[in-house]
Amino acid sequence: MVTKVLALLALVLAPLAGAQTAYRLLQADYQGRQIGSKHYSADGYVTLPRGSAKPYKAVMVLPVNSTSPEALADYTQQKSSLSCVLLVLPSSWDSSGMPAADASNLLRLEQQLLAAPAQVPVFFAKETAALADAVAETHAMFERGAPPTLQTDRYQLALQGKMPTQLASKQATNYVATLRAADDHLKLGVPPPPALLLTAHFDSFSLAPGSPAGADAAASGAAACLLLLRLLHRLYASPETRPSRNVMVLLTTGGPYGQQGLLHWAADADPAQLEAIEAAIVLDSIGGSVAVQQQAATDSLRRQQPQLHMHHAADSSSSSSSSNVAWVDAVAAAAARMGVQLTAVQQEVAAGTDAAAAASASLGHEHLARKGVPAVSLSYMTAAPVGQQPRVSSLADTAAAINLDRVLDAAQVAADAISRWLYPQLEPQLCLLDLSSEPQQHRDFLAGWIKLLSTAPSMMPFDKADPGISLLHENIFQFMRTHSHSAKRHMWTPAGTPASITAFGGTTATMRVLKAAGFMQDMLLLAAVLLYLGGLWVVLVVATRGWAELRAMWAPKPATRRRNTKGGSSSNSSKRS
């Protein structure tokens, strides 16, 4: 008897095995603009985009490499009877195996989801064997002319997530580390020595915040900044090599939203400190991944070696115009010495207020140029993204897609330019910061930080309640404090933040693939289970109480006369009287 009960429980619980993680479409950005549905769970049978009908209570499964933005809009922008839409990502993507067409199509789908709010829940999931089998069997059903319905044999998808929570903090955090010159004693009234600024943003914006993303768009530049900070700290640690100039390494947040973190830092900085900055380098998207190189429309173009670009913007009205030209030439000369091909891209600084600047800027050197700081941005992007607010990090932008050789090339150009700015009399044939001296150690360092920076949920940086983001912030600050003379946090409030912010909780869901029978088979199975349980109950009653007790339970009970308490009391009262 016990064996049969255990077998029945195993039969019921077996379909729950093999759960995988799915990622929910972002509900809203930090400005409160709706993007995805508020629903965080879904349940329905698997269907495919075959025919014009929208099945009832079904999960529409769409592979990202073969779904057009128009088809996606048809299923997400109109209220329909679908339970949800599931976008299936390939099981693995890397820089050598992903066709440019797939990466480009995924970016188009992401832009489509960003353009108009989804009316049905949207989830992303990596392709697994169970999901692939379900799709293949469902496709075979359509080919046989018997598409799945609630009344037929089918595959069922169950996605269970958590309800979004409310954010407690409304502030973002920048981190700045300073390496001080030998004669920098922080005396009052004494102007600070010349300084150089090395900066990158480390946060990303992804439409599926729980999924790793932004390895190239954000993590590559931040990891290179930390590597250069560690190498520069060695120079400053020795009295023989300590320069007479300062270096500041700044890691910012708000990068996807017009580089707002850098904008606020420049606005809040001490005027004397800002005036002392003679040069700046911004590292942005230096991983050379195909997820960022969306300009390459064909595989043949994608296979070409990515080329490093130096973006710079000169304000013709600024007195630092000549200094900017000199710094641009210095960085170009550093690239030539290092054997790295570099293409200069110049654009005019857009006039306007800081708010307008934040809405138009996509690379950090633009904000610095408005402050009169000679600045360049090193990036493998051939052109700065225009009109993308926020700037989306594609789900294909993962650590596996990073080309570490490209990161080292960009970091080496920056290292040589910085070292020659620190030591103007340095011989041309010398290279103080030679990254080729310990290549494997540097590669391991970059790979570790890129993985950490891109694995943390790509939510808004002020969500300190998330354990992953909180740990990431602490690791960054501790590293910068260990490898500098001083490290500080710079708090800022994102522009346009509403009074209340909805956190992006419930960004992941547990997804299970179940094999479900048709309606009649479901009813027969239910009847069989009920019959089995009824028989088990009869056996237990007979074994414990006997047949007589069982017959007594089902025997009709004799009718009893209901006593009229009130009438009886009246009769007795009359007799006594």
UniProtKB/TrEMBL annotation:
InterPro entries: Nicalin, Peptidase_M28. It is found in: Endoplasmic reticulum membrane. GO terms for cellular component: endoplasmic reticulum membrane. Residues 1-19 form the signal peptide. It is a single-pass membrane protein. Its main location: endoplasmic reticulum. Residues 297-321 are annotated as: Disordered. One of its GO terms (biological process) is regulation of signal transduction. Pfam families: Peptidase_M28. Residues 193-414 form the Peptidase M28 domain. Keywords: Endoplasmic reticulum, Glycoprotein, Membrane, Signal, Transmembrane, Transmembrane helix. Residues 297-307 have a biased composition (Polar residues). The chain crosses the membrane at residues 523-543. Belongs to the nicastrin family. This is BOS complex subunit NCLN. It comes from Tetradesmus obliquus.
